[in-house]
Design brief:
The complex is a heterodimer. By secondary structure, chain A is an alpha/beta fold. Chain A has 17 helices and 26 strands. Chain A is globular, with a radius of gyration of 24 Å. In chain B, strands 1-2 form a two-stranded antiparallel sheet.
């Protein structure tokens, strides 16, 4: 064993690592995913696992979870070499996993979801004791400081963030040695995230450890003790957080220095209006009125569920409107379906790329041309796959899409590259108005920059953009103006350059800017 | 190895079945005459299964194809009994199938009923209609014009084989033409591409500007049309029509498509794979009949084979 076997714990005394994975390798059908990854987690620490999409984080976690078998390398838990052959084996070793895609049953109650796979408390050994099941679930939720979720309520009625909290409280139910959280805050609000961090710190204080995977560097800097960075399937570095700066981390992940997080605007917005809405109203929406100029990025901020989704769907013809008028260019615009919206020159990048954006088991080029088949075929009827591939390859090259070729199935791509496929479809027809919903969620730093650059390129050509995001720095960095939504209405529109992050949060909560959050 | 079995298991099985029958029945099985015979035996199923493939590409089902086939046969026979020309009878029967399919499509895409339930209901309705219009009787004999029955009995002469004149039956030609047409439609047109997108992720397809409702409606209509064609072919072959003669087609058509899905990369239906599935079922039926295997035993064997094929296709995939 190398010096990896002995690690410095936060206090400085050498101790036996809780988990050590050494020289792990794994290839899928000959394509290497891990080429020598090391990960050493000490007892009582929060350890960040970082890297771009496709760097091998997911594979490493799947190996620890017993879902995927490694090709080589050794794993030791508490100094003992182990083989994790199944998810059960991982569970018995005291490892708990909270994945990106939550596995919940939305038709069951919160309490039932928390106790899923465990023994329900019984009366007389037979009948489920619902009262004590709910009580114990309540206890599990309270550990996270959650008092607004009723254990007997239906899980499906909760917001995504609340569902995540339920999942997390389920994993925290029994005392385990190591919790692995994969992008837990992607769907959480700031308050929910803070609550989670408090619990993670408690776990650390109790002597258990956490492996924390996230693309949000600020979170990692604030929360984690040490970090391991993966790049191209191998671990680049691991070290104490205290000695690393934000910029160091970014440089380690992408292998080069990034000067700016957001590319500069190529041209200022034009005078001409690209789109205007007045008095739009529908279920959960409005009335709202606003306009976007050609080449302008209009950000939309707000707490989750404030009507942003309803607004975008209404603009895209996917939701019913009860009132209001829209103008696109100088013509009235009244989309009856997404098909009509595409035809009018409006493109859309939906919030959930897997559920709403991509046909996962089809090739890249088919996903890109799906909205452009009329032009990328012969007379709109006969397919022209070679033309489609060329078309897709050009778009892909422009946004630095990493893939074997345009014929590769989307499911094989990393998250950031999948997002680029969705974006490629949207920008392919040089849209007049581009609707972006959480365009960089779960996307690594390098791919984020690529995506922003494409948006800048489009606005330079006069495309108007409406950007809905819960990532405040992104909104501030990319928008010209930001509309604040609360309870389905736009409560104000501000110049992005005139405010900071704290002001924006205050506005989202309905407080005046400048207050201390 | 697992991957290999998953992908090519059904083809290997098919070859094994061919080898088995060729050894057991050297004089009668591997002959051109028998093969032409098989091609005719499977032609009706081939056409119906091709139609079934169209809706199954979208992840839907059509349980009503068997009753639609029976109804089409009955409608044509009744019109011929009433003295209408054969071409008119055939045309009306095809339109009935098309409209029946469009009705399925409307129930599924406009009303929003699950395909399984909607077509289960129309299966009963079409079957009931076939009984009502025919009075529950088989229509046969002199009432059916000779040319209608003769169509199935004749074919394209291919020359001589072992001193006997052989020909490619007309029904087989229709089956080949239908399979080719569906192949072009599903694999070479934007229509097919869109159907596969709907089958892969209906929400993504919708948000990409695909008119899901209209395509569903068209796809179900085409499946109904194919079912009617299959029913007409059957009626021509037996020169008669009765209200239940298409009833075996539905399960076999679905079985053939499923057998086919074991051969595609992601388990999606492909028309040429469906054709292999139909041939597997047809060859089994032909060979086992020649070996005088009891028809009930045959059912057990065919059912078992489907389980083995689809089971092998999911080797190592069941984790939960």
């Amino acid at each position: 064993m190398s010096q990896n076997a002995i690690v410095e714990d936060p206090v400085g005394a050498p101790s036996m690592p809780l988990l050590s994975a050494t020289s792990i390798t794994k290839a899928y059908a000959g394509v290497p995913a891990l080429t020598g990854a090391n990960l050493v987690v000490a007892p009582g620490e929060i350890h960040a696992l970082m890297g771009e999409n496709g760097a091998g984080k997911s594979t490493l976690i799947k190996i620890l979870a017993g879902v995927v078998a490694p090709d080589g390398g050794t794993i030791a838990v508490n100094g003992e070499t182990v083989t994790i052959g199944s998810t059960k084996a991982a569970y018995r070793l005291g490892l708990r996993f909270i994945h990106q895609e939550f596995n919940v049953v939305s038709t069951l109650s919160v309490a039932e979801n928390i106790f899923m796979g465990r023994f329900y408390p019984r009366r007389a050994g037979l009948l489920v004791d619902w009262a004590s099941l709910n009580r114990e679930a309540q206890g599990a939720l309270e550990r996270l400081g959650i008092d607004h979720i009723k254990p007997s309520g239906n899980l499906g009625e909760l917001s995504l963030g609340d569902q995540m909290l339920v999942r997390i409280s389920a994993a925290l139910l029994d005392d385990a040695k190591l919790y692995v959280l994969d992008e837990p805050t992607a769907a959480l609000t700031r308050d929910e995230s803070e609550r989670l961090f408090r619990v993670l710190r408690e776990i650390r204080a109790s002597g258990s450890s956490v492996i924390y995977v996230s693309h949000r560097l600020d979170e990692i800097m604030a929360l984690c003790d040490r970090a391991t960075v993966l790049r191209d399937g191998r671990s680049i570095d691991s070290g104490a957080m205290a000695n690393i700066t934000h910029d160091d981390l970014v440089a380690m992940m992408i292998g080069r220095k990034v000067e700016e997080a957001y590319p500069k605007q190529l041209k200022p917005p034009r005078k001409a209006l690209a789109f205007a809405a007045s008095g739009l109203a529908g279920p959960g929406l409005g009335p709202v009125s606003f306009s976007v100029r050609e080449g302008e990025v209009l950000g939309v901020a707000g707490l989750s569920g404030s009507g942003q989704g309803e607004l975008i769907r209404a603009l895209f013809g996917a939701a019913r409107l009860t009132a209001g008028t829209m103008i696109l260019g100088d013509l009235p615009y009244k989309p009856s379906s997404p098909a009509a919206a595409w035809q009018s020159g409006i493109a859309y990048v939906p919030r959930e790329r897997r559920a709403e954006g991509l046909v996962m088991r089809r090739p890249i080029f088919e996903n890109i041309t799906l909205a452009h088949l009329k032009r990328q075929s012969r007379a709109g009827i006969l397919l022209a796959p070679r033309r489609e591939r060329r078309f897709a390859a050009e778009l892909g090259a422009n946004m630095r899409l990493k893939a074997v070729g345009p014929g590769q199935d989307v499911i094989e791509l990393s998250g950031g590259n999948q997002q680029k496929v969705v974006l490629a479809r949207a920008v392919a027809g040089n849209p007049r108005l581009l609707l972006l919903e959480e365009p960089t969620r779960g996307v690594d730093v390098g791919a984020k920059f690529d995506i922003y650059s494409i948006v800048r390129e489009l606005t330079g050509k006069g495309t108007a953009v409406i950007l809905v995001s819960s990532d405040l720095p992104e909104l501030l960095g990319m928008s010209d103006r930001i509309a604040i939504m609360r309870q389905g209405e736009i409560t104000g529109i501000v110049e992005a350059a005139s405010i900071g992050e704290d002001d924006l949060i205050n506005l989202c909560y309905g407080r005046s800017p400048g207050m201390v959050a | 190895m697992q991957l290999f079995i998953r992908r090519y298991g059904t083809l290997i099985g098919f070859v094994a079945i061919l080898a088995f029958f060729s050894i057991m029945l050297p004089g009668t099985f591997p002959t051109a005459r028998n093969w032409l015979n098989i091609s005719q035996q499977v032609s009706m199923l081939m056409v119906v299964a091709a139609g079934m493939t169209i809706v199954m590409v979208m992840g839907d089902f059509d349980l009503s194809v068997g009753s639609a086939a029976s109804l089409a046969g009955i409608v044509a026979a009744l019109m011929m009994v009433a003295g209408q020309p054969v071409w008119a009878a055939v045309a009306v029967a095809l339109v009935v199938g098309l409209l029946g399919g469009a009705f399925n499509g409307a129930m599924v895409s406009l009303v929003g009923i699950l395909p399984f339930i909607a077509t289960l209901a129309t299966m009963t309705m079409f079957s009931g209609l076939a009984f009502v219009v025919s009075g529950g009787k088989t229509i046969s004999g002199r009432a059916i014009p000779e040319e209608f029955g003769n169509f199935a009995r004749s074919g394209l002469p291919l020359g001589e084989w072992g001193g006997v004149a052989i020909s490619l039956p007309n029904l087989s030609i229709i089956a080949i033409v239908v399979v080719l047409a569906v192949w072009v439609m599903l694999e070479q047109t934007t229509f097919g591409r869109r159907l596969y997108a709907i089958g892969g992720n209906v929400e993504a397809a919708y948000l990409s500007g695909i008119n899901v409702r209209r395509l569903r409606l068209i796809a179900f209509s085409l499946t109904g049309l194919a079912a009617a064609a299959g029913g007409l072919m059957y009626a021509s072959r037996v020169a008669s029509a009765n209200p239940v003669q298409g009833s075996g087609l539905m399960l076999n058509a679905i079985a053939a498509v499923f057998l086919g899905t074991t051969m595609s990369r992601h388990g999606e239906p492909r028309i040429l794979a469906t054709a292999v599935g139909v041939l597997v079922l047809g060859v089994l039926d032909n060979g086992l009949t020649q070996m005088s295997v009891d028809s009930y035993i045959r059912q057990v064997l065919v059912g078992g084979l489907i389980l083995v094929a689809v089971g092998a296709g999911s080797v190592g995939q069941a984790r939960r």
